[in-house]
Amino acid sequence: MTPSGAKHSRLSLARRLRLQQLAIFEKVVEAGSILAASRELAMTQPAVSKSIHELEQQLDGVLFVRGKRGVVLTEFGCLFQRHTKILMGELRYLAEDLNAWQTGTAGHVVVGSLIAASATLLPEAITRLRAAVPDVVVTVRVGPNSVLFPALARGELDVVVGALPAEDAELLRQNHAERAELEHVALYEEALCVVVGSQHALASRRQLCLSELHALEWIVPTQDSAAHASVRSFFKKAGLAMPRRLVESVSILTNLGLVSAGSMVALMPQSAAERFAQAGLLAILPLEGLSPFSSVGYTVRADRGPSAATEHLLEALRGVGRSHAAGVDASACIPALYA
Q1: Whole-angstrom Cα distance, residue 196 to residue 216?
Q2: DSSP 8-class letter at 306
Q3: Do 148 and 80 meet the contact criterion of CB atoms below 8 Å apart?
Q4: Which residue, of 119, 180, 206, 236, has the greatest Cβ tally within 10 A?
Q5: Spatial distance between the Cα atoms of 61 and 334, rounded to a whole number of angstroms
Q6: Looking only at Cα atoms, what is the longest distance across the chain?
Q7: Per-residue pLDDT reduced to its tens digit, 295-327
Q8: What are the structural domains, with CATH classification, of the chain?
Q9: How far is CA 233 from the centre of its chain?
Q10: DSSP code for 77
Q11: pLDDT digits (tens, 9 = 90+) for 22-77
């Protein structure tokens, strides 16, 4: 029974709502218009419109504002979307578990990657995963903590790999539907290096002090990254303010392109810097004072166990992590990605 005056209950929604309606709603939100969604779903536009109209009637609320350029979620629609993301995420987990039960090896893992993992830890772990279970599909999404951890809590990601945050509560406080207990597993400590392009005038120097570089153009991690506090401390210990000519970026490819093609100086996670230096793309400058800024590892939801496919990836991550912690080049133990 529903409370006095309440229109909805778990059972009443279960009777009225259909999973196909939720999938259509999700696609309309993603596509931004009913016409575009109908094309992607291989349905007619009237059929999609009818499904959304029936959903609005069943919920007794307007989900979209229709316009010439498409549709936009109403406030009511945003509320419904938050819960739909979780429901559809759980449906994906169900499909993964059923596939794993029936095939034992197939599956799909959706990984969120931070900069500290994007050049070494994750590529090496995926290579190990492919050698063990070649039929598993891996989708990698890159972003900052503030985007990836809420997505993990909603079930849109299976695991986040990278620098572990000191505190995740602030990242997850926005919406009740996004609150979930996260489990952080540390694999090894990560430090930062100061790098320049391999052809830079400073690349061959054997002795340097930070003050010589302060006036140059710098690439530093963004203010919401785990490494930012360590960067500020690095300059402060040398009696220097943060450089004035800054690019704030956690895009490993953007940073690599800027440094290798010009005169910029960058702060980069040591594991990534060493990989690019070995490839002849960068030079690591002989500067001291940068202590480890964070533990690197992976984060999963603590309130549900991983799928079989995700567990295979976690085991691969742990194997690579043990090699890094022991000071071994993990890529030497598996087929090289950057040969």
Answers
A1: 11
A2: P
A3: no
A4: 119
A5: 55
A6: 77
A7: 889 999 988 888 888 999 999 999 999 988 776
A8: 10-73 (1.10.10.10), 104-189+295-333 (3.40.190.10), 192-291 (3.40.190.290)
A9: 26
A10: H
A11: 999 999 998 999 999 999 999 999 999 999 999 999 998 999 998 888 899 999 99
